[in-house]
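Pipeline run #58 for the internal structure catalog. This entry was flagged by the ingest filter as a single-chain record with no existing model, so it goes straight to prediction. Upstream metadata was stripped on purpose; only the residue string is passed forward. Reviewer on rotation: M.T. Logging verbosity set to normal.
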Amino acid sequence: MKILALGLGLWALGTAGADTPAVLENEHVRVTRDAAPCADAGAGCAESIIVVLGEPNRGAITVHPRGARYPAPSGTYFAVNIKPQRPPVKSPAVLIPPDKNSILYDGDDFFIFEEKLDPGDTRARHSHRERVVIVLNETRLQQWPDGAPEVFRDQVPDDVHFNQPVVHVVKTVGERPLRNIVIEFKH
């Protein structure tokens, strides 16, 4: 009976978070909060990115390659699991790298950067492919997308969303700096 209990306990550890609802899911990613369903390298998992939401390491990332087992983190975090079978990534009409960001990881299929922009500062015209955005700071942005009217966007901490390709200019008009973790697909 003790062996069965131990086996069930290990099974529960290995599947922890597997039934956790996603906070974001589409054909590219499945994002969960405070659960790492790909920690046991199960089926349906490719690369996995952990983004820490708690202090003192808010915004720290860890990238786990396809097939790697890793211990589920403690604390508050998002687990961004890249799906192994994805459609081609949509790209903007022109690729213009954004300035004032810090590249945290550069892999074959995606790169991760910390998006930063001080209050009152403007990022010149640049572009993005499809991407996951994890908001770290509350602020407000003014954006001028090519071929569309200007928009204002409120940044809500701990929000996660999937953005379509864009070419735009951005200004931080809020009192706090823009600070996001962005996972942008290459292809």
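catalog note: Confidence is low (pLDDT under 50) at residues 1-17.
catalog note: The radius of gyration is 18 Å.
status: ready for reviewer M.T.
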